[in-house]
Amino acid sequence: MINVALAKGRLAEKCADIFIKCGIRAEILKEETRKLVLETADKKFKFFFVKPSDVPTYVEYGIADIGIVGKDTLLEAGCDLYEMLDLGFEKCKLCVAGFPDSEKKAGAHLRVATKYVNTAKRLYFSRGEDVEIIKLNGSIELAPLTGLSDVIFDIVQSGGTLRANGLEVLEEVGKFTDVPFVLHGCTGMREDIIKEAIKLGVAKINFGTEIRYKYVEHYEEALKTNHQGHSWKLSQMANDALTEDIKKIIRLAGSEGKA
After folding, report:
1. Residue 147 burial (CB < 10 Å; 0-12/13-18/19+)?
2. Quick one: average pLDDT of 23-34?
3. 161-218 residue pLDDT tens
4. Which helix (H) or strand (E) is 131 found in, with range?
5. pLDDT band at residue 147 using 50, 70 and 90 as cut-offs
6. What is the CATH number of domain 2-85?
């Protein structure tokens, strides 16, 4: 059974659509329930509903095999985790924002309000800038309006809230989407699902396990032939058959003639 940690609400519903397209019976993620642990009917997947900020922790400690959470949360957690895939649900940017005339003067002490304290500290420390980080948990835009901070450090999607309060993006630190997607573990996956994934923007597909097993199968078939005890003949026959398998994979990925 594969354990998945994710947050309730809109994210879970979007994830359900992706899981279902992949052949996973994840309809339960769309049901109204107060349960914190849900299992698919075939007992192959178990879902944990946790706070977004706790998702990296559940994965880091091995309670969940996979976690689904925003990249802002991953950056802030600073856990030693492998990011498998950017799902590209919502495009947003990590920005420094404030009033148009609140650009920092050289050498000035800057007060920065944010809920991403660790991320902000890493950013400004790497620059050697003198700042005071003020932790807030919500309504970050209010800080410069009331004089609590000079600027804010937050994620921005459309920028509508900033503009409505007379604020603007002063610096774009990083984007959280528009990166190449990688599809891991394609062994046994239906061809129509792989083709759909490519249409959705997957740029790299891994077939390592399938290729290794295919080689073993071909080698076993070669043992049934008149190989006269020559290992090189067995390897050559297995390699020739595997080459044809790889050609099929290349055609499936639409990569024929692109090398």
Report:
1. exposed
2. 82
3. 899 999 999 888 865 544 445 566 667 777 877 776 676 556 677 788 888 889 999 9
4. strand 131-135
5. very high
6. 3.40.190.10
> Judging by beta carbons within 10 Å of its beta carbon (0-12, 13-18, 19+), is residue 87 exposed, middle or buried?
middle
Residue type for 175, please?
Answer: K
Rounded CA separation 8/10 (Å): 7
Q: What is residue 107's DSSP assignment?
A: T
Sign of dihedral through CA atoms 86, 89, 91, 93?
Answer: negative
Q: How far apart are the first and last CA of the chain?
A: 38
CA angle 227, 230, 231 (to 5 degrees): 105
**Residues 147-160, mean pLDDT to the nearest whole number:** 89
Asked if 89 and 77 touch (Cβ cutoff 8 Å), the reply is no
In a 13 Å sphere around the CA of 186, the CA atoms on its Cβ side amount to 22
| The domain over range 93-175 is classified in CATH as 3.40.190.10 | yes
Helices (H) and strands (E) in the chain, counts: 9, 11
Select from 59, 60, 76 the least CA-distant residue to 68.
59
Instruction: Decide if pLDDT at 154 tops 80.
Output: yes
User: How far is residue 25's CA from residue 20's CA, in Å, rounded to a whole number?
Assistant: 6
Domain boundaries of the chain, sorted by first residue: 2-85, 93-175, 180-259
3-state secondary structure of 5: strand
DSSP character string of 195-238: HHHHHTTEEEE--HHHHHHHHHHHHHHHTTS--TT-HHHHHHHH
Whether 93-175 and 2-85 are alike in CATH topology: the answer is yes
